[in-house]
Known about the structure:
Layout: H1 5-71, H2 75-110, H3 113-147, H4 154-221, H5 228-240, H6 255-324, H7 330-361, E1 369-372, H8 373-390, E2 393-399, E3 405-408, H9 410-427, E4 432-441, E5 444-450, H10 458-463, H11 479-489, E6 493-498, E7 504-511
Parallel strand pairs: 2-4
Antiparallel strand pairs: 1-3, 4-5, 5-7, 6-7
Amino acid sequence: MRLSLATRIFLGYAVVLVTFGAVSLFSVTEMHRNQVEFRLVSEGYLHLTQDASAIETFHKNRERDTNRLRDERNVDTRRQLIRLTRLYFPGLMAEKIKAGQQTAKKVMEFAPENEKEFVAEVARKFDELSVKYAEYELLSESAFTLLEQNNPDWTAAEARLDRLQAQENTIGVNLRLLHGSLETRISERVARAQERERVTGAAIIVLPVLAIAVGLIATALSARSLRPVRTLIEGASRIGRGDYSAKIGLKGDDEISLLGREFDAMARSLQEREALLKQKQAELLLAERLAAVGRVAAQIAHEVRNPLSSIGLNVELLQDQIEAAKFASPEEGREAVALLKAISHEVDRLTEVTEEHLRLARLPSPSLQPEDVHALLDRVLAFSGEELARAKIEVKREPGADKLSAMVDEGQLRQVVLNLIRNAREAMRGGGTLTLRTGVVNGSVEISVGDTGPGIDPETRAKVFDPFFSTKASGTGLGLSLSRQIVQAHHGSLDVVSEPGQGATFVIRLPRA
């Protein structure tokens, strides 16, 4: 029977798939087996051998110390040796045995089933060593107590040292057996891996050659599957000319279809990036304009500040003169003094406005230090407590942690929190509740200042941090803008959450110390 073209292509790809699948499966299986073997040796038995060697070396040093105690007749030297042994040996030996036990436990987690019995036996030997060393410490302490005496009974001391050394010999034999069994196991596993590697290498050479031969036969039948390449090239050319709306629209599960869909995704991504770039350009233009306005405002504020100081000084001098002058009636004198006080108040307000403009234009870089956030808030509340009490505002603290430190410039952060508290007080004209919350959110220190005022509508909320924007009749619109600028200089953020009629909450996020 004559097979159709579709059937021949299907059979060709099926044969290629089966051949390459067999090669891949065989390679992956052998690689996995070798990986398990190498991991067992490198991360398991070698580490266990190192732990056993370390214990054995440390044990030999202890044996030499015991022999030295037997031969040492100077009581001060013996006491010094015993003191050093008590100080270092038990803890270090226990640490080394524990390390061996932990290593055996880790090896048990990834060891193959045919090796778990051996690993369990090694773990048991480490447990036996721990018990024997506990008994050994009791024997050594008995001998040490006798040898520390000025005139010890050497007959009894020799007997105890004999028992001690017999225990040392027993432990040494166990250590050598443990070390030897581990080295033998490593040699066996390495020899087995080498033999498997030789067989695998021969198979990997033969099977790919067979797969290549089958693939060459199937290549001729696969030529027409490359027809979508032309569509892909045309679509790529359109994208290259800047037509990001071009859609290749290839369907299928082959690589060409996937590449076509990636091109479509790339086009969408480029469209979104171009839109984002335009947005960033607009924001940059706005920032440049604001910077220019800030420089002009700073220059004007600098030029106005000095005359304001002179005017304020002259008003104070004139007020002193008027208070000493005589008027036709007391009412005329009080009216003149009231006018001068009004002038002085306006001068002070203008001076404060110029200072805010200068701070915005010349904000210094923060000097970041670890600061206790709770202590800083306590100091700010202590400073503004009387002001809040007069405004009939209740302060509510909700600390989220006993101790909370952040990397901040204490003076600048204090300025930000004080500004937020004053804004909250002004929002609650008839009194209310000021809530200060602190905590850790996603690794950052969070400070929130909430009020029970009228809240902020969405339109105002979008512009509340803009420079020179203010809802107050006498506001400069620089307080919140300056506060956000300070927080951003601390590598943090300042945001507001509010709904009309439900109060407002300003949230400061700062890096945790």
